[in-house]
C-alpha cells in the first residue's frame, strides 16, 4: 500500500462512552470480519474485559476503506478508558497520527475525556470529535457539541454525530479519517526502524512484538535486531491484525503489524524497543516511551510455597506486555517468599491478581496496598519506602514526605458540596472549579472541579464514595503532582504476641488510635478461634494503642462425668487449664486472607 493511503489512528474517550462499540461498527462497515464471526466488543478478547465490560489492553486491527474509488488502509488501535490504564493509551497514541475523540451525547465531556485530549495534544495528533449515542432518549447532542467547541476549541463543522449502537454516522467517520488524519511520515528507502508498542508471549512462536514500521520495511528474509537489548533474531512469521493474527510477506513503511521473534526469554524484548535489520541497520533508535511510574505497591505471595517459581514466571510474562507492572522479590515472616509489585492503581492491581489466578492457575495472598514515601533519615540520607516493614524506626527519621495527586472531578453542580466535603475528609484541598455549560446558574449544569489530595487517601474506597455521594454522576481523573511533608507512623499488628508484618500499615498519626481499634476489632471477627485466648494488639513503636481478644474455644472435658466425686471434675479442669497454658506458648495462629484485606476496610 502506498504511504499516502495509510491512516493510523486510535479511539479515545472516557470509560463507557462507546469506544469498543464504535470499533465493532467500523469492522462491519469495512467488511474487516465475517458477519458470522461478529460479536459485541470484538476487540476485547480477554475474558476479564468481557466480564467487567471495560477495555484493559489496547488492541490493533487493519481495515480497508474506499473513498472516491481509491482504496485506503486504516490501522485502528482501540484503547482503554479507565484512568488506571492511561499508560496503555499513551503507548497506542505514540503509534498513530490521529485519534477519534468520542463523547457521550448524554453525559458530555468527562474528566478522562480531557485527560486523553491532553495526551493527544502533547503528541501533536489530529483529533476528530464524535458525539456518540445520539439515539438515546436523554441525548443532548447540540449541548455536548457546544461543550467541545467552548472547552477544547473545535470548529462546529469538525464535529460529527453518530450512534455506535445502530451504526448511524460510521461511514462519515471513516471518510473523515481519510480526509483529515495525515498519512504516516517515514522514509521507505531508509534503514528499517520499527517501534515496539506492545508484546506478548506465545508458547509456539516465542515473543510476539507488535510494531509500527516508521522507516524502511520488514520482510521475512533478513535477520533482525532489537537495538536496545542488542538481541539478534530471525523472524518466524510477520503479519497484521484482522483482528486475529494474519500472516503477510512484508510490512511496509507506516504499517502496523506483528513479528514472531522466536525468542523464549521474556526479558529479551520490551515495549518501546526499536527493531532494525541486523546488518547495515539504523544507527539511532526511536525515542520509545517514558517509563511508567507505579503509584500503588502491594505484596503478592503464593498460598503454596512451592508455587513461588511459577509466580515468578507468570510475573515475567505479564510484565512483557504490561510495562507498567513492576516487581521484585521480598519475604515476609508471616507469608514466606513472594514479590513486591508496583501498579498504576487499585483496578490495575485487581486485574493483575485475577490474571495471575486465571491464566496461570495460581492461588495468591495480596497484602494491603500502600504508596511510596520519601524518607529523610537523621544522618541526611534519603530512602524510598513502599512497604510499611521498610520504614525506619521513629528515632532515625528526620522527615517523611508522601505523594500528592491533582484531582479533576466532573460533576453536576448540585453535587459540588458533597464532593468538597468528601475531599476535606481525605485531607485534600480545594483549588478551583469552572462550569462546562453556558447555564452556570442551572442546577443541572456540569462543573469541572480541581483539588489536590494525598494519594494514600484516595487509594481504597474514594472512588466508591465519590460515586455514592453524587448518585453515580461524578467522573474522576488524577495524576501525580509532588511529595509533601506528612505526619505518619507505622501501625503494627501483633497476633498472639507475634508481629504480623503483612498487616502493618502507614497511617496519619492523629488517626492511629481510632484505626488501631477498627483494625483489631475487624481481625477479631476474622481470625478463627483457637483452644486458647488469642490477643490482637495494634502498636505504634513500643506503645499499644488498641487490643482485642479472640476468646478460646472451650472443650467440655466434663462431658463424661455424671455424678461422682467433685474432686474428679476439679482435677480435669486443672489439667485443661495447664494444657491451655502450654498450648499458648507453642501454638501457631493461622491468619486468613480476609484478615489482610481488613486493612483495606478501615473506613467502613
Description:
It is a single chain. 44% of the residues are buried. The chain has 14 helices and 31 strands. The strands form 6 sheets. An 8-stranded antiparallel beta sheet has the order 11-10-16-7-8-15-12-13, covered by helices on one side. The radius of gyration is 29 Å and the shape is globular. It has 604 residues and is of the alpha+beta class. Strand 18 and strand 19 (336-343) form a beta hairpin. The longest helix has 21 residues, at 566-586. 25% of the residues lie in helices and 32% in strands. The mean pLDDT is 84. It has 5 domains: 3-180, Rossmann fold (3-Layer(aba) Sandwich), CATH 3.40.50; 193-277, Beta Barrel (Elongation Factor Tu (Ef-tu), domain 3); 296-366, 2-Layer Sandwich (Alpha-Beta Plaits); 409-485, 2-Layer Sandwich (Alpha-Beta Plaits); 490-601, Alpha-Beta Plaits (2-Layer Sandwich).
